[in-house]
UniProtKB/TrEMBL annotation:
It comes from Salinicola rhizosphaerae. This is DNA-binding response regulator. The modification 4-aspartylphosphate is found at residue 48. Residues 1-113 form the Response regulatory domain. CDD domains: REC_OmpR_PmrA-like (cd17624), trans_reg_C (cd00383).
Length: 217
C-alpha cells in the first residue's frame, strides 16, 4: 500500500512498483489506512508523513496501537534527524528521504518483506524451487523456468507464505488488486499452468477453502 497525497509522485511510485511486479494500492489520505489494512493483507506500507487530513506519524501510531504488523517504510521530505528518530521510534521499519532513487526504494521494500517473513537469504528456497525476487526468476532444478507474470506472482506469493492457505478471493486481490474484474476461474487456470510446469503437487488444493504451497516435482 502506498499512502501519498502528491498526485505526480504517487503516479510515479505506482508505475515503478507495477513494473517490478508489485500490485500497489494507492491512498491519498491517512484516514482510510487502518480500515484498508483490516480488510486486506499487504506485504508492506509506504507512508508519507505530510498528509492532508492526518499526520503520517499519527497513522503509524494508530497502526501499532492496533498491533498491525505490516512493515512500514516512511517516505518523506522531513529529513532532519529528530523526525527520523521519531518515525523509527513510533514503529516504522525504515525511513527514506525525498527525493529518492527508485532502485533504492525497491531494494528497501524487498528487504522489509524479507525480514518480516523471517528470512535472511535474498532468495526463497522450497525443495527443488528457488525464487529470486530481485531478478524475478524462478529456478527448478537449477534451471530458470519461464512462466507468465500472474503464474510467477502466484507461485512467488505462496513461496513467501509457506503453510498458509488462501481463498480464491484473497489470491485474486493479491494478483490483480482491489475491485479487479477477472474471470471466475482465473486462479484455477493459473494453478493448472503451474502444475504443468512444476508438477501436480506444487500447489495444493485445500477443499472448500483454497490453495497453499505444495511440493514441486
Amino acid at each position: 500500500m502506498l499512502v501519498e497525497d502528491d498526485p505526480l509522485l504517487g503516479e510515479g511510485v505506482v508505475a515503478v512498483l507495477r513494473r517490478e511486479k508489485f500490485v500497489p494500492e494507492w491512498l491519498s489520505e491517512g484516514s482510510g489506512v487502518c480500515a484498508a489494512l483490516e480488510k486486506s493483507t499487504f506485504d508492506a506500507l509506504i507512508l508519507d508523513l505530510g498528509l492532508p487530513d492526518v499526520d503520517g506519524l499519527e497513522v503509524l501510531r494508530q497502526l501499532r496501537e492496533a498491533a498491525c504488523p505490516v512493515p512500514v517504510l516512511i517516505l518523506t521530505a522531513r529529513d532532519d534527524v529528530d523526525n527520523r528518530i521519531r518515525g523509527l521510534d513510533s514503529g516504522a521499519d525504515d525511513y527514506l528521504i525525498k527525493p529518492f532513487d527508485n532502485g533504492e526504494l525497491l531494494a528497501r521494500l524487498r528487504a522489509l518483506v524479507r525480514r518480516s517473513a523471517g528470512r535472511v537469504s535474498p532468495t526463497v528456497n522450497h525443495g527443488r524451487l528457488v525464487l529470486d525476487p530481485a531478478a524475478h526468476e524462478i529456478r527448478f532444478d537449477d534451471e530458470i523456468v519461464a512462466v507468465g507474470r500472474r503464474e510467477h506472482d502466484l507461485l512467488a506469493y505462496l513461496m513467501t507464505h509457506p503453510g498458509q492457505v488462501f481463498t480464491r478471493d484473497q489470491l485474486v486481490e493479491v494478483l490483480y488488486g482491489w475491485d479487479a474484474e477477472v474471470e471466475s476461474n482465473v486462479i484455477e487456470v493459473h494453478v493448472h499452468h503451474l502444475r504443468r510446469k512444476f508438477g501436480a503437487g506444487v500447489v495444493s488444493t485445500v477443499r472448500s477453502v483454497g490453495y497453499r504451497l505444495g511440493e514441486a516435482g
